[in-house]
TrEMBL record:
<dbReference type="InterPro" id="IPR050319">
    <property type="entry name" value="ABC_transp_ATP-bind"/>
</dbReference>
<comment type="similarity">
    <text>Belongs to the ABC transporter superfamily.</text>
</comment>
<dbReference type="InterPro" id="IPR017871">
    <property type="entry name" value="ABC_transporter-like_CS"/>
</dbReference>
<dbReference type="InterPro" id="IPR003439">
    <property type="entry name" value="ABC_transporter-like_ATP-bd"/>
</dbReference>
<dbReference type="Pfam" id="PF08352">
    <property type="entry name" value="oligo_HPY"/>
</dbReference>
<feature type="domain" description="ABC transporter">
    <location>
        <begin position="6"/>
        <end position="253"/>
    </location>
</feature>
<dbReference type="InterPro" id="IPR013563">
    <property type="entry name" value="Oligopep_ABC_C"/>
</dbReference>
<dbReference type="Pfam" id="PF00005">
    <property type="entry name" value="ABC_tran"/>
</dbReference>
<dbReference type="InterPro" id="IPR027417">
    <property type="entry name" value="P-loop_NTPase"/>
</dbReference>
<feature type="domain" description="ABC transporter">
    <location>
        <begin position="287"/>
        <end position="530"/>
    </location>
</feature>
<protein>
    <submittedName>
        <fullName>ABC transporter ATP-binding protein</fullName>
    </submittedName>
</protein>
<keyword id="KW-0547">Nucleotide-binding</keyword>
<keyword id="KW-0067">ATP-binding</keyword>
<dbReference type="GO" id="GO:0005524">
    <property type="term" value="F:ATP binding"/>
</dbReference>
<dbReference type="InterPro" id="IPR003593">
    <property type="entry name" value="AAA+_ATPase"/>
</dbReference>
<keyword id="KW-0813">Transport</keyword>
């Protein structure tokens, strides 16, 4: 019997005097122990449908037809009291960003205690149950962890706490809204293995919303494909991934980066994939030089003795787990975090010291190195129009005369493939992909020579991600931009980057051309990253083998030279 039953559901929101449909006649069902995935591009209605399972509708939205039944109850006919009882006890949700879903001023134990209220437990029993829940979601030292605040946990630990809160009341339905977005591949693999195990142990009916089709292939029994609020295709996971029936599904699957792609992939209307050859940068001169750079927070060292060069026209990828030092190193290069020691130099026409904070750098040096942030939602001023956001650096750096700024702003907006009609809109009126393009246009306004792209496609669906990556690749070719590219998605790195640097706990453990690093031989940590990467193929979605235990070798020669610039840090196995 189905625990989740959605029949002919239609939802619309009011825009002025008219109603705009966002979900149109969608039907689906989920049984106990089954995982159903909702997939589709941004605006397809997948998160809206997921929200209705807990009786949530966005402000201004309403159900115009159909019904939603959870464990036999019509959700939208429940009284306020019965709806509150449904949420948490019968159906629970794990949100996309656990860091913002958890209350920052409350300790983990207190938040779990709140989730356990109403179960008739004593305070002592609730404390014991909180520790038990943290153990159930595979968190180490749960007795200590209940005393911590959310900001004292890693992203993966925060997500596990959110899962513990969701299962506290032993619900029958678990709604997962992008549960692994922003997590590195090893943490992501652990979270997915945990969720799969919990679904089996607790016989949960699970509804998964995800733009990551590798995650869907690893978790889902059945996949429901949506486009513009309508069902395009619905099929068992293995059948849909192996033989999609609809052209839209084929295009969606074809847009997913694969770890064996040798270049960015362009997808035709028929779903055919064609790899774009990489730009030739083999003999390009270096534009940034890092030598023995060390960066820390207080007494804690986050980046330790990193040395590398970034060449003109090159995409250099930094990869590694959360906490490996990728973003800290990028922040130091951008002038947002001063290094504790080492040399950090810009080597262009007018060389400069990049150890100097951004606000104290000479204006010309400051514009040469620009940062595109991970979250375009918070990186753009919500009260500035798109035109103002892009035009502001032109005024700040003074490289364009006032009379020419309007024309140059229009050129920049056009250069990132945005419609000129969007220029007067505010960020909230754009899609995630459009906002990310605005961030790129703003970074380009200063005519930089170095672009730092920090996880810029993390929250984008696969088709939008493909367009943003192709745009960035076009711009670096056209302007010979040096790009420091940070990503936890190794398939994206394989298609985008010319060279790869692997960081582990702030140290470089491997570096070399993309082809050499992905082909091997590898450092055991690099191998663990590669093994944990998810492919959009249920047949290849098994649990990754644990990495062997290792430690760095105190050999006189620190590096193993695998040839042609491929360097691997020496290690020894620990039995």
């Amino acid at each position: 019997m189905s625990i989740v039953e959605v029949r002919d559901l239609s939802i619309a929101y009011r825009a002025g005097r008219r109603e705009v449909p966002v979900v149109r006649e969608v039907s689906l069902s989920v049984e106990a122990g089954q995982t159903l995935a909702l997939v589709g591009e941004s605006g397809s209605g997948k998160s809206t449908i997921a929200g209705t399972l807990l009786g949530h509708l966005r402000h201004g939205s309403r159900k115009t037809a159909g019904e939603v039944r959870i464990d036999g109850e019509d959700v939208f006919s429940l009284s306020g009291k019965r709806l509150r009882a449904l949420r948490g006890r019968t159906a629970a949700m794990v949100a996309q960003n656990a860091g913002s879903a958890l209350t920052p001023s409350m300790r983990v134990g207190r938040q779990l205690d709140e989730a356990l209220h109403g179960q008739g437990l004593t305070a002592a029993a609730r404390r014991s149950r909180a520790v038990e829940l943290l153990g159930q979601v595979r968190l180490p030292e749960p007795e200590s962890l209940v005393k911590r605040y959310a900001h004292q946990l890693s992203g993966g630990q925060q997500q596990r706490v959110a899962i513990a809160m969701a299962i506290a009341a032993r619900p029958k339905v678990l709604v997962l809204d992008e549960p692994t977005t922003g997590l590195d591949v090893i943490t992501q693999r652990g979270i997915l293995d945990l969720l799969s195990a919990l679904a089996g142990e607790l016989s949960l009916a699970t509804v998964l919303v995800s733009h990551d089709l590798g995650v869907v292939a690893a978790m889902a029994d059945h996949v429901h494909v949506l486009r513009a609020g309508r069902t395009v295709e619905s099929a068992p996971s293995r059948r849909l991934f192996s033989a999609p029936a609809e052209s839209y599904t084929r295009q969606l699957l074809a847009s997913v980066p694969r770890i064996f792609d040798r270049g960015l992939v362009e997808v035709g209307e028929d779903g055919e994939r064609h790899a774009r050859p990489r730009a030739e940068v083999a003999d390009a001169e270096p534009v940034v030089d890092l030598d023995a750079v060390r960066v820390g927070y207080g007494k804690r060292t986050v980046v330790s003795d990193v040395s590398l060069q970034l060449r003109r026209g090159e995409v250099l990828a930094l990869v590694g787990e959360s906490g490996s030092g990728k973003s800290t190193l990028a922040a130091s290069l951008a002038g947002l975090r001063a290094p504790a020691s080492g040399r950090l130099r810009y080597l262009g026409e007018t060389p400069g010291d990049l150890r100097v904070p951004a606000g104290k750098r000479p204006r010309d040096l400051r514009r040469k190195v620009q940062l595109v942030f991970q979250n375009a939602d918070t990186a753009l001023n919500p009260r500035r129009s798109i035109r103002d956001s892009v035009r502001r650096p032109l005024r700040l750096f003074g490289i364009v005369p006032r009379a020419q700024r309007a024309a140059r702003t229009a050129e920049l907006i056009e250069s990132v493939r945005l419609d000129a009609a969007l220029a007067e809109r505010l960020p909230a009126q754009l899609s995630g992909g459009q906002r990310q393009r605005v961030g790129i246009a703003r970074a380009l306004a200063g005519a930089p020579e170095v672009i730092i792209a920090d996880e810029i496609t993390t929250a984008l669906d696969v088709s939008v991600q493909a367009r943003v990556l192709a745009l960035l690749d076009d711009l670096r070719r056209e302007h010979r931009l040096a790009c420091l590219f940070i990503s936890h998605d190794l398939a994206v790195v394989r298609g985008m980057a010319d060279r790869v640097v692997v960081l582990h706990q702030g140290e470089v453990v491997e570096q070399g051309s993309t082809e050499a690093v992905f082909a091997g031989p590898n450092h055991p940590y690099t191998r663990a990253l590669l093994d944990a990467a998810l492919e959009p193929d249920p047949e290849a979605a098994g649990t990754a083998e644990p990495a062997l235990a290792w430690a760095h070798d105190d050999h006189d020669e620190t590096w193993i030279d695998a040839g042609e610039g491929h360097l691997i840090r020496r290690w020894k196995e620990i039995r």
